[in-house]
Amino acid sequence: MSEVKDNPIFAGLDRSTFEHRNDASYQAKFARGLNEEVVRKISAEKGEPEWMLEFRLKSLKTFFEMDMPKWGPDLSALNLEDITYYAKADAEANARSWDDVPQDIKDTFEKLGIPEAERKVLAGVGAQYESEVVYHSLKEEWEKQGVIFVDCDVALKEHEELFKEYFMKCVPYNDHKFAALHGAVWSGGTFLYVPKGVKLDKPLQAYFRMNAPGQGQFEHTLIIVEDEAQAHYIEGCSAPKYGSNALHAGCVEVYVGKGARMRYSSVENWSQDTYNLNTKRAIVDNDGVMEWIGGNLGSGVTMLYPCSILKGAGAHADHLGIAFANTGQIQDTGAKVIHAAPHTSCNVVMKSLSKGGGTSVYRGLLQVMPHAHDVTAQIECDALILDDYSRSDTIPDMKIMNNDVTIAHEATAGKLNEEDIFYLTSRGIEEEEAKAMIVNGFIEPIVKELPLEYAVELNRLIELEMEGSVG
């Protein structure tokens, strides 16, 4: 733990780091609620080509036609007419230097440790504030190798044909109601293209921040890793608490080429006001590897199930995740893996913590297509309930369409072991610290796979959630 305490990026991390808020008077310039006029204004403000406006309007029509999800958490308290779907602070987009970012916005990202992390360990950084990316950079050595790392608004302008080829093909706009909403109002996000054979040896990072009350954020992340290439992308998210609903409905699309490897790490720490209804999906070609590593906590309601479609022979997916549900929270998370080719494999490890009456849910799908022979899949979901009135559910769905497979599924749920606590306290460790040690051991298999800065953040956030109230 000395690395955690001594790390300058997250030293002294406390709740105020995420609850910090700036003046949001700029939001008054933008309408609440959603209609065709709002969508046309977004497209016009960005100077988009006609095909994108048509796509947005088609998505909007589909959004109004589709029903709200009738499974999972209750979304009836989410008033979609009270959300601001597009707003931008008084800042120029895509500054290349932190010095060019307005001071109050820069101070927010300084508190979150982003500039420091960029200087020390990252190959490039993007920072989004409300609906617009305010800062973006990529180190020159990677630009020279043909790597493209910009936000999606820039990609649409500067790499239109490449962008159009992949945009919302992995997650179609009519996939579900919030995919349709995203298609109508998406803004900002990340476009990452790694050419064939290029192996990024440092991660790239984007941080998404909501500041104003009742805000919606709909960033689009589009990642293309060509054959034999390699990349690691890190995503962080946060928002302050206001007492009015906010909505996050981002979309992540990842394309992993033959023999390529992609790791996607994220820690999502939205405020308890936020409905986090995010969609993440990857298509993996022959012998490609897709790794999803994530932590979810903070939001009032989360529905998030990263999906890997193993379409090429020999493709592999790893899904590792932690969810923490505290008072008044529902963390409905999990993983989906679709084996659509022979000799494919996956490993899913999900951990959940529930406290203070919170509800954590593992919701998973494993599908093996009829022609996908010689498939190996291992799924493990473990729940730790930290009191007598919280809840954890496991809802696996397995659709195995041939017999030439090896499938293992294991689920456990339990409470803190009194014998373990007694053993530690009998050796002079305070009871609360003993319980925290057990929790840290429970989540360690996931946390150790996160980049150091995010492992530190996640550990400290869980400590803060547990402080003075475990047991």
Task: Give your account of this protein's structure.
The chain contains 13 helices and 23 strands. The protein has helices at 2-6, 16-19, 36-46, 50-65, 103-111, 114-121, 140-143, 152-158, 160-166, 177-185, 418-425, 431-447, 452-466, and strands spanning 124-129, 132-138, 148-150, 189-194, 204-209, 216-217, 220-225, 230-238, 246-248, 251-256, 261-269, 274-276, 279-284, 289-296, 301-304, 307-310, 316-325, 330-339, 345-354, 359-368, 375-385, 391-400, 405-415. It has 471 residues and is α/β, with parallel strands linked by helices. α8 (152-158) crosses α9 and α11 (418-425) crosses α12 (431-447). The longest helix has 17 residues, at 431-447. Strands 3, 4, 6, 7, 9, 10, 12, 13, 15, 16, 18, 20 and 22 form a 13-stranded mixed sheet that branches. It has a ten-stranded mixed sheet with strand order 2-1-5-8-11-14-17-19-21-23. The protein is globular, with a radius of gyration of 22 Å. β1 and β2 (132-138) form a beta hairpin. It has one domain.
In a nutshell, what does this entry contain?
The protein has 471 residues and is of the alpha/beta class. The chain has helices spanning 2-6, 16-19, 36-46, 50-65, 103-111, 114-121, 140-143, 152-158, 160-166, 177-185, 418-425, 431-447, 452-466; strands spanning 124-129, 132-138, 148-150, 189-194, 204-209, 216-217, 220-225, 230-238, 246-248, 251-256, 261-269, 274-276, 279-284, 289-296, 301-304, 307-310, 316-325, 330-339, 345-354, 359-368, 375-385, 391-400, 405-415.
